[in-house]
Amino acid sequence: MNSSVITFPGSNCDRDMDVALKKFGFKNKMVWHDDLELPKSDLVVLPGGFSYGDYLRCGSMASKSKIMKSILNFAQGGGKVMGICNGFQILVESGLLPGVLLRNKYLEFICKNVFVKVNNKDNSFFKDVKKDIYEFHIAHNEGNYFCSNNQIKEINDNNQIALFYSDENGNVNKKSNPNGSLQNIAGIYNKQKNVLGMMPHPERMIDPALSGEDGSIFFENLINNLK
Amino acid sequence: MIVNEQLAIDHGLKKDEYEKICELLKRVPNITELGIFSAMWNEHCSYKSSRFHLKNLPTKGKNVIQGPGENAGVIDIGDDDAIVFKIESHNHPSFIEPYQGAATGVGGIMRDVFTMGARPIANLNSIHFGSSQHKKTKNLLRGVVHGIGGYGNCMGVPTIAGQTSFDKSYNGNILVNAMTLGLVKKNKIFYSKAAGLGKPVIYVGSKTGRDGIHGASMASASFDDKIEEKKPTVQVGDPFTEKLLLEACLELMAGDSIIAIQDMGAAGLTSSSIEMASKGNLGIEINLNKVPCREANMTPYEIMLSESQERMLIVLEKGKEEMAQKIFDKWNLDFAVIGKTTKSKKIELYFDEEKVADIPVNTLVENSPMYDRKWKKAKLPKKIKIKKEEFKTLKVVNVLHKILSNPNVCSKEWIWQQYDHTVMGDTIQKPGGDAGVVRVHGTNKAVAASVDSSAVYCWAHPLSGGKQIVCESWRNLISVGAKPIAITNCLNFGSPENEENMGEFVECVQGLGEASSYLDFPVVSGNVSFYNQTKDIGIKPTPAIGGVGLIKDYKNMVTMDLKETDNILLVIGKTEGHLDQSLFARDILNEKNGPPPEINLFNEKNNGETILKLIDKKLIKAAHDVSLGGIITALSKMCIKGKKGVTLKKPNYLINKFEYLFGEDQGRYIIEISKDDLENVTKILQENSVHFDELGTTNENDLIIDNKTKVSIDDLIKSHTTWLTNYMSN
Predict the structure, then answer these.
(1) Residues of B with CB below 8 A from A62's CB?
(2) What is the C-alpha separation between B114 and B121, in angstroms, rounded?
């Protein structure tokens, strides 16, 4: 399986993602934001970080990068694209995913483990996944998902919510919402379910010595589904 | 502008210093030259009051690759790997503008580390605020935490440990000390010593603006009522540009075109160019018209004294300019050849084709003033005889809850949750433990780091306090299973012109030196921050020690959380019940006098090394050092982290229970071992002549102090975790 991780100026989880993808069997290539062509890929990942310092709306500058054109084409042709954290913000800004990511409700950066519940498994990212509830790590300042009433209706009608913030038993409620996200949304798909954006960082949970191993389950499942 | 004595005094120079400048130059300096002298000769850059005493610190050891004098210290961690690290203060700017002050403190220290070729792998910080009741404290705390997070998070470097304290002596002068560790291959370390003649001097990074002009001089003066007016001297940070600068520098460093490199920190272009010239024993010529400027019409004086952030100066091999420029173009950073090395041994500046400064380098460095300031020796205070009747009205449980929710003991999760502590995917011990631990990427090794200070002990008796912090740093590293290697120090004191403050400095440094020499725990880098005072009142002396240790196999790392029920807990080291200067005496009995606990360096070393032996043999399940708040506080934290209880044993010698539980005797650890290993552990401890007592046994849910006194772990958690969150949300 070939994957590509895009490095934007200010990306800082690009190496971590490279390490994770390789650990679970991907042949990964790092791709520079200024390149025009994507290498042959079964999966394209937009990693976390602070592209362009996030000085404007998070992800908005990066969404205009040269490489984004070929990523849009790739996604439109059904290619699998995944955006984590800042990558999610870039996907939203590029129009590949609906909605926006606002500042966290309490206006503070949050770095901690949270539980997320998988909502829709009918796609290559989560199909046949062994677990419904994952412990993932979040680290962001702008993860408060928001969209219009029409958009959220459409998202629900199309079953586009990928992950909810929940407690360890899978209860989705106000208490288990770390950042004020609409309907506890932690990740969403596009309509065709070939583009996934999520705030949590599975790449930080791939080793028992780190925060946990639920990321390993995610990546193992992902490569099997893409085969 | 006419330069005279008054103008020199306005620049923070003393009358005799100005006279010395005229004598060295054999003429009156022009305004640019005066600015350069004032920047190089201020306390912050010249160490003029501290050099005399710092030279006595032990700085060598078998693992030391580079001691003080470079951008940061470097230690050998085996297999061609080295760790570059340093701590630095950013106190004055953080009080004036907490967000930018703290942010640029973090940015500055990271630059010091990657200037040497190392990729930063961990950040730490030691931050000290005024009383929680003081009207400025909350905003300062919030601003500093946001600033540290804002910069470190954007850089993608995990913040793995820290220390936060509150004390009214910081009401008008908070402390913000930032520390960074970087990883480098031993044969790829870069230094600031220029070499070769006619080599191009390159400016890279951000443009130069009017921010931070005279920042270093501001940091060398005390605060008064007009402090708000100093806001323009605070620099503004741009972590995004620094991230680009980091990647671009490391890319250039992969080749062999760099002769010397130096970041533009305090005193900007002035100190960076002069330091490179001085170390290389040559001259540098700069055309200031070539310096990329953010604003129009900047004068040579402003360009030389600006402290705009995210800039570097490089002496490059000739002919490599084009290749280097390509790298910086790729990262969208300014790149300009601004001058060359010369044999003149002078710093020569040109602007609009006119020579605007011409100063022999040695006058700025070797001939800078050095003072052996007057200082007063501190007497060891007499021991307080606390009347035992005072204890009678106290209940252990109530005191314990009070101590666990004390601002200086309570959980700092509200703070470290705002720092990305897991980016880079190698953080194996997060904040909240004895030390933060990160793996050396792609290997089985791990590096532990901790930052500590004990201002109360240092204030009560500087010599003992100085020893104590080095020992505490050592214990924190031992507690996670790391072999302590070296330290960096950030010496925060009041005015060196005040004999008592100077005495505190001299004796803390002496204590620090004694302990680090005995423990073979040398000082490889550091920073002195004087004039931490408002009007005439200095802060409590607050040397902060950043310790670094190595864990050969990260799987052997130890944490403090209790692991299983029915295990045995031992206290390593003797409990005598020293209460003077303890949190119990100060906050519960309101007794602020008396000597701090005594330090026995032999026991420190022996106890620590024996614990490492036990860890090596995999006999320790959990470990934690005993510090502020004594045995019961340390134990409660182990219970809270592991969500397990403990049934305490009655001490087997006669001692008052408050002294036993809350005394702050040094050199102690609590360890958890399995019952089956008790015999083996006892044997090893006895063979090594280590004193130990059996403390109790782990249980499911409660801390059982005696048959009448019991607290649930949930209650301990509540006391420990609520204070700071409530304080910040009100």
Answers:
(1) none
(2) 10
Question: What amino acid positions of A are annotated as catalytic residues?
Answer: 85, 201, 203
Q: What residue numbers bound the domain in which A88 lies?
A: 2-226
B92 is catalytic: no
Euclidean distance between CA atoms B272 and B262, whole angstroms:
6
Q: What distance lies between CA A13 and its chain's CA centroid?
A: 12
ipTM of the complex: 0.96
The closest alpha carbon to B116, from B52, B184, B174, belongs to B184
Nearest residue to A158 via CA among A198, A196, A193, A118: A193
Query: Would you list the DSSP string of B317-346?
Result: -TT-HHHHHHHHHHTT-EEEEEEEEESS-E
Give contacts of B 155-174 with A, CB under 8 A: 155-156
Residue B222 burial class via C-beta count within 10 angstroms: exposed 0-12, middle 13-18, buried 19 and up: buried
Domain CATH for A196:
3.40.50.880
pLDDT tens digits, B321-372: 999 999 999 999 999 999 999 999 999 999 999 999 999 999 999 999 999 9
- The domain total for chain A is 1
Angle at alpha carbon of residue B506, lines to B500 and B509, rounded to 5°: 135
DSSP label of B279: H
Q: Which residues on B lie below 8 Å from A203 (Cβ)? A: 425
- How far is CA B199 from each of CA B141, B285, B350, B575, B636, rounded to the nearest angstrom? 46, 10, 17, 63, 61
Q: What is the DSSP string of B416-466?
A: HTTS--STTS-EEE-TTSSSEEEE-TTSS-EEEEEEE--HHHHHH-HHHHH
Contacts of B13 (CB under 8 A, 6+ apart): B21, B37, B38, B41
Gyration radius (Cα) of chain A, Å: 16
Residue A136, strand partner residues: A114
What is the rounded distance in angstroms from the CA atom of residue A26 to the CA atom of residue A20? 9
Which of A7, A33, A109, A137 should be substituted to probe chain B, the one whose Cβ sees the most B Cβ atoms within 10 Å?
A109
Q: For residue range B513-546, what is the model confidence (pLDDT) as tens digits?
A: 999 999 999 999 999 999 999 888 889 999 999 9
* Helix, strand or coil, per DSSP, at residue B281: coil
Q: Which residues contact B630 (CB under 8 A, 6 or more apart)?
A: B582, B583, B584, B661, B662, B663, B664
Q: How far apart are the first and last CA of chain A?
A: 7
- State the nearest Cα–Cα gap between A39 and chain B, in angstroms: 20
Widest CA span in chain B: 87
pTM: 0.95
Q: How far is CA B288 from the centre of its chain?
A: 35
